Amino acid sequence: MNRQEERINEETVELLYESETKLKLAYENDLKLKELCAGLIGKFFGTKENAPHNIAGIVALSMLIIGLLITIFSLFSSSTDSAATEYWKMALPIIGIALGYVFGKG
Questions:
Q1: DSSP assignments along 43-61, one per residue
Q2: What is the largest CA-CA distance in the chain?
Q3: pLDDT of 47-104, one tens digit each?
Q4: Cα–Cα distance measured from residue 7 to residue 2, given in angstroms and rounded to the nearest whole number
Q5: What is the three-class DSSP state of 75?
Q6: Domain boundaries, the chain
Q7: Which of 40, 65, 67, 72 makes the best surface tag, with the fewest CB within 10 Å?
Q8: DSSP 3-state of 79
Q9: Confidence tier at 38 by pLDDT (50, 70, 90)
Q10: CA-CA distance, 106 to 94, in Å (whole number)?
């Protein structure tokens, strides 16, 4: 390799490094801007594009956990009427709708 080719290679490496640095800075600035725009509630649920899906997922997961707890407690309960059955009759359609929204097309 001659001297001119070495100089061109060094310049190419420098340009690539500068481009990578600029991309990293742009990404960090974009991330900070999204954090500022999201606000307090946005930090928990996400940006306005993702918030509906996140909320539906949280609702489905919460209802599933609550249902499992009610089922476990009703198994050890001495009463004959099952609160778990009533809960699942109400909760399963809601969980299904929430999961359909989260994983559905659109």
A1: HHH--TTTHHHHHHHHHHH
A2: 91
A3: 777 778 888 888 999 999 999 999 888 888 877 667 888 899 999 999 999 989 888 8
A4: 9
A5: helix
A6: 1-39, 50-106
A7: 40
A8: coil
A9: low
A10: 19
For the stretch 55-58, contacts whose Cβ atoms lie closer than 8 Å and that sit 24 or more positions apart, written own/partner, are 56/98, 56/99, 56/101, 56/102, 57/98, 57/102
- CA 100 – CA 105 distance, rounded (Å): 9
**Exposure on the CB side of residue 92, measured as CA atoms within 13 A:** 6
Q: pLDDT band at 1, cuts 50/70/90? A: low
Structure tokens at 11: 């310049």
- Which tokens hold the place of 97? 């709708």
* Token pair listed for 47: 């940006």
What gap in Å lies between CA 1 and CA 52, rounded to an integer?
A: 58
